[in-house]
């Protein structure tokens, strides 16, 4: 029962794990931070990305032990193993809540969900958080059943570990509390309050670093529609289960599916923070409901059973193009490897490079070779030396002077239509390029634009 989703998860995760040697910018941050010395890493976390601090420390240890192993394998293997463990735990949850076949189906559904497949192959913390939240959910059910203090402590420890890896895992706690039977709520509340108290120092530090999430815009229609669609699916499955008299899976699965993303959406009305990967673990609730409902429909006879089987087959076929696309370099926001190759080609004869905005300097971190021949005209301190994610830049007056001393500049920019940063440094870069240079040509890359600028008549 557990073996099938575990093996399926491993097969799908290993398939195309390297994505043609590509890496996207969030993975680059993990790669860069994990390879810094412990003193540098610790100093950086005091200024930025404390929310991912424990994950970076874990990855630092893994890279230290990996020797000459393929860096992309080292970067992504923890996520693959985490999702594999989560798939097995989802199957166990489904078994406990609705029976062995429901558990099997829940585990398989979980593995096939596109967001789960995506983050099983990314060097970020979200797969590990998902695995820990699912494990905590399983331990919560055991604590409710046994009522022992040891079981509650085990639940609290794993829930705290999930929150320490990424603090938005704390949004799973209200979902867990809502699913508790009345007799267990007092014990559950005490344990969850203890988790929050232990997490408080991380929350205090990370709230001082909110400029890192300034890129998150308001709640978009796609986010609302995506949440609404998954919620409607969950409610429909819950209705099937209630009608069949199987209420056990409904409360824990539906609360996990709906409440964490809903709370994050509500918070985002005040401070934009909603990104679906922050609550990836909510898809465990989706899988539990779909798996249990599918089990009930298969148990039925005649047209209902036939329709359920056909619908499940059609869903798998519909997901196949997405599954194939997720293994390609263009499936992510950008392709740092392709950007580096474009710089290698376009940078010949240039006097320097500028990044608009400065955080796109991240594109140069995993493979600095193509960038070494191009002086960074705005750079003051490198990311590692300045204990920052993207380095520090000179004052705007110095940036202007260095750019005006050049005759040919490579500019790495966001795609057209993206909001521009309004800082003095970013404005200085744009103004000098517009006033003193002409555009010689632009390459539109995945998630980026590379433009070569020269003095008038110098293209």
UniProtKB/TrEMBL annotation:
- How does this chain sit within the bilayer? Multi-pass membrane protein
Question: Does this UniProt record's set of keywords contain Thylakoid?
Answer: no
Q: Which InterPro entries match?
A: LipidA_mod_glycosyltrf_83 (IPR050297), RgtA/B/C-like (IPR038731)
Q: Does the keyword Repeat apply?
A: no
EC number, UniProt record? 2.4.1.-
Major site of localization recorded for this protein: membrane
In its UniProt record, a GO molecular function of this protein is:
glycosyltransferase activity
Q: What is this protein called?
A: Mannosyltransferase
**What is the protein's species of origin?**
Streptomyces pseudovenezuelae
């Amino acid at each position: 029962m557990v073996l099938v989703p575990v093996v399926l998860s491993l097969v799908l995760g290993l398939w195309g794990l390297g994505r043609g040697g590509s890496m996207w910018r969030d993975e680059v941050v993990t790669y860069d931070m994990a390879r810094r010395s412990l003193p540098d890493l610790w100093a950086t976390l005091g200024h930025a990305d404390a929310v991912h601090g424990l994950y970076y420390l874990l990855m630092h240890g893994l890279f230290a032990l990996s020797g000459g192993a393929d860096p992309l394998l080292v970067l992504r293997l923890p996520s693959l193993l985490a999702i594999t463990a989560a798939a097995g735990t989802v199957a166990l949850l489904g078994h406990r809540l609705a029976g062995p076949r429901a558990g099997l189906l829940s585990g398989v559904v979980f593995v096939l969900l596109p967001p789960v497949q995506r983050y099983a192959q990314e060097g970020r913390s979200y797969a590990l958080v998902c695995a820990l939240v699912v494990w905590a959910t399983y331990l919560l059910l055991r604590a409710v059943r046994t009522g022992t203090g040891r079981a509650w402590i085990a639940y609290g420890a794993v829930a705290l570990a999930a929150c320490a890896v990424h603090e938005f895992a704390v949004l799973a706690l209200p979902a867990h509390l809502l699913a508790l039977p009345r007799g267990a709520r007092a014990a559950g509340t005490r344990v969850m309050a203890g988790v929050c108290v232990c997490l408080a120092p991380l929350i205090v530090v990370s709230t001082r670093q909110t400029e890192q999430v300034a890129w998150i815009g308001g709640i978009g229609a796609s986010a609302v529609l995506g949440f609404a669609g998954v919620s409607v699916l969950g409610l429909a499955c819950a209705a099937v289960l209630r009608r069949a008299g199987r209420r056990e899976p409904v409360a824990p699965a539906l609360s996990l599916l709906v409440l964490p993303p809903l709370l994050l959406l509500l918070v985002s009305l005040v401070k934009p923070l909603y990104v679906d990967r922050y609550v990836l673990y909510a898809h465990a609730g989706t899988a539990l409901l779909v798996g249990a409902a599918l089990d009930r429909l298969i148990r039925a006879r005649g047209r209902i059973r036939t329709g359920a089987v056909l619908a499940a087959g059609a869903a798998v076929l519909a997901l196949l193009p997405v599954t194939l696309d997720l293994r390609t370099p263009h499936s992510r926001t950008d392709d740092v490897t392709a950007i580096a190759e474009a710089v290698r080609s376009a940078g010949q004869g240039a006097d320097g490079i500028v990044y608009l905005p400065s955080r796109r300097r991240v594109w140069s971190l995993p493979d600095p070779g193509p960038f070494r021949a191009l002086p960074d005209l705005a750079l003051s301190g490198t990311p590692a030396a300045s204990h920052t994610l993207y380095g520090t830049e000179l004052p705007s007056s110095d940036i202007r002077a260095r750019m005006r001393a050049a005759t040919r500049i490579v500019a790495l920019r966001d795609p057209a239509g993206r909001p521009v940063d309004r800082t003095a440094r970013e404005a200085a870069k744009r103004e000098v390029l517009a006033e003193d240079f002409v555009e010689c040509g632009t390459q539109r890359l995945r998630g980026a634009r590379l433009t070569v600028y020269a003095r008038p008549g110098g293209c």
